[in-house]
Design a protein that fits this description.
The chain has one domain (about 1-275). Helix 4 packs antiparallel against helix 9 and helix 8 (about 200-225) packs antiparallel against helix 9 (about 230-235). The protein starts with a helix and ends with a helix. The chain is mainly α. The protein has 11 helices and no strands. It is globular and about 45 Å long.
């Protein structure tokens, strides 16, 4: 039960990232690239304050592995930020979470984790539910650069999640990853339009310090208990939660697709978590 509650809290944090990003970019004219850089920087500050308060230090392990985790996180941040400059939100979500599924299932298979029929059926059912929720209309463009960038983000996040299975101190590991990731994402500011606003900056700080920094640390704490495959399937709930947040905070309408997708996604997650 504790694992389920912590996983749910983590998925809410991930969905909040999406809502805060959309709110900053769509309503407060915040440059997506600047949002991403401020998000990572504020995550570094908050995480390292907590690390010092708890008397933790730089996490152990191979320096090459630590740089690899930071690079995977940067790959996700950069790909995600730039993809939505040309890609529709629904198409982006489908590519992102579909790619994360493939990456994490592939990593799990390579590491010898058992797939199981119920997990495979659950993943497929939840993925169909996601497609129902975000499937684009016929007139939506599919720019190849946007698709490639979002696929890059999916692989980055999948690898970053897989690497969390062996982290002994999730908070310290996340703080180190954010610190090493920051110089990798700073060049994003030269690729954006440079637009900022006080509200957008405040939302970026909130997203970085709370829903990203603390949310990602919590993710590293629950991934070992979930395993790669169930962790991948659980993330398919994020678009549903984000859509609900869009209704509450952004006034976005929810149609019949949301109801059907909710049944399929939650049912698929239930199948994947089911044990005899």
């Amino acid at each position: 039960m504790r694992l389920l509650l912590l996983t749910t809290l983590t998925m809410v944090a991930f969905a909040a990232n999406s809502v805060l990003n959309r709110l900053a970019v769509n309503q407060y004219a915040m440059d997506p690239a600047a949002f991403a850089v401020i998000r990572v920087a504020s995550g570094v500050v908050v995480l390292w304050v907590l690390i010092r308060v708890q008397g933790l230090g730089w996490p152990g392990g191979s320096p090459l592995r630590r740089v690899g985790a930071a690079a995977a996180l940067a790959l996700y941040m950069i790909g995600f930020s730039l993809a939505y400059l040309s890609l529709d939100t629904g198409v982006g979500a489908l590519i992102l979470f579909g790619g994360v599924q493939i990456t994490m299932f592939g990593g799990a298979a390579l590491s010898g984790e058992r797939v199981g029929l119920m997990r495979a059926m659950g993943a497929l059912t939840a993925l169909v539910g996601l497609a129902v929720l975000v499937w684009p209309s016929a007139d939506v463009s599919l720019p190849i650069e946007g698709i490639a960038l979002m696929a890059m983000a999916a692989v980055g996040w999948g690898i970053y999640s897989l690497m969390g299975r062996s982290e002994a101190v999730p908070l310290a590991a996340t703080g180190a990853n954010f610190a090493l990731c920051l110089p990798m994402v700073i060049p994003l500011v030269w690729l954006g339009n440079g637009e900022t606003s006080l509200a957008g900056i405040a939302l970026a700080i909130l997203a970085g310090g709370v829903t990203s920094g603390l949310g990602y640390a919590l993710w590293y704490a629950v991934v070992p208990g979930l395993g790669a495959m169930r962790a991948g399937v659980a993330q398919l709930s994020v678009p549903l939660i984000a859509a609900s947040g869009g209704l509450v905070f952004l006034g976005e309408a929810l149609g019949w697709r949301f109801g059907v997708a909710s049944v399929l996604v939650l049912g698929g997650i239930g199948l994947s978590l089911w044990r005899r």
